[in-house]
Amino acid sequence: MRTIGIVTEYNPFHSGHAGQIAALREAFGPHCAMVCAMSGNWVQRGQAALADKWTRAKLALEGGADLVLEIPTLWAVASAETFARGGVGVLAATGVVDTLSFGSEAGTLEPLEQAAQVLHTAPWQQALHQELDQGLSFPAARQRAAAALLGQQAAQCLSQPNNNLGVEYLLAIQALGASLTPHTLPRVGAGHDQAPAPGQEHASASWLRRRILAEEPDALFPYLSPQAESRLREDPASLSFCTRGVLARLRTMEEEDFAQLPDSGEGLSHRLYAAVQAAQDLPDLYARVQTKRYPLARVRRLVLWAFLGLTAQDRPAALPYLRVLGFSGRGQALLRQMKTTAALPVLVKPAHAARLDPEGQRVFALEARCTALYDLCRRDFGRSPGPNEYTENPVRL
């Protein structure tokens, strides 16, 4: 039986994600297993996930996934390179996943593999620094440096977000020496951050989030099932619901504290420190810091890391454990296999964290703090307690 791995956020799980799983079962057989490495309560764009990680794991299981494992926040809220290494690292460490599948605008591996061959080579590094010295943002400099080595047409794939992430998955497989066969599917439906066109089969996750957070009453079927939509609307989360808490935390920090954040070099920490003193809300803060060289996503991640009280030194060189968020009957069979195949400790219950080495316990404690702060970002915070890292068990389907 083939076991397919997917690196994802499922923020939220929608018809496009269900379509990917269905397409994989059509390609690899109806009995293949689906293992998802999923971001926890905080996601790569520097935001709170719309729903907590256990709710999103349950929606994924109902949509066809078999086993959902967490990408810890220290890897999930990071650059594409670090995010990819975290997700691929989770899947590789299971010892049961043999294939890594991802969606891409290219829909074929060849252009992504060509780009991966030149990225992070010495000539590319030299070209990249030359482009960065001209004041370009990292994504733009990255593509132009690749174009200098591959040609404009071959490097064009790096201008699209899912292609970019796909290249990082390929690089992560190589860097980690993972025994995973890459497999890509064409990304279909609305583009990244775009509304669906009339008759379009799938909406983008960002469009769905905006509709739910704005409390727009129109039903989101067929992009979300009525049951999923009801759960997501019940108590959504957003960093904006905790604006004063975020600003209060950041205004207690000194400039040297901002310099300890990841990817805060090139004068960005000074710019962020100055902006924090005057910003009236989060969009205002982002706008004061963002420039052509400092993309919005990078700025949002820095703000989130500061709010969570995390530093670049908090992320260890390697993942310390595998945290199970949910599983089906087939997933339970995989967990039994992982007792002998997993390269890392597998935490099925929160109590298992006590068995970790000191480094693993430190990372788990940081994750618990991130979950406690996520609770503050729920729209209905205070009405009922949110899930607790030390007491919440995996979802079973």
Can you characterise this structure?
The chain starts with a strand and ends with a strand. The model has no long low-confidence stretch (mean pLDDT 94). The protein is built from 18 helices and ten strands. With 397 residues, it is of the alpha/beta class.
State the gist of this model.
The chain has 397 residues and is an alpha/beta fold. It is 48% helix and 11% strand.
Q: Give the DSSP E fraction (strand runs of 2 or more residues).
A: 5-15%
Order of helices and strands: EHEEEHEHHEHHHHHEHHHHHHHEHEHE
Query: What is the terminal-to-terminal distance?
Result: 20 Å
Radius of gyration based on Cα positions: 20 Å
Which consecutive residue ranges, at least 5 long each, have pLDDT under 50?
A: none
Structural class: alpha/beta
Helix content bin:
40-55%
**Overall mean confidence score, pLDDT:** 94
List the helices and strands and how they pair.
Layout: E1 3-8, H1 15-28, E2 33-39, E3 42-43, E4 47-48, H2 53-62, E5 67-71, H3 73-76, H4 80-94, E6 99-104, H5 109-118, H6 122-132, H7 138-150, H8 152-155, H9 161-176, E7 181-186, H10 205-213, H11 226-234, H12 243-251, H13 255-258, H14 268-276, H15 282-289, H16 296-308, E8 322-327, H17 329-341, E9 346-347, H18 358-375, E10 395-396
Parallel strand pairs: 1-2, 1-6, 2-5, 6-7, 8-9, 8-10
Antiparallel strand pairs: 3-4, 5-8
Give the tags:
397 residues, alpha/beta, 8-stranded mixed β-sheet, globular
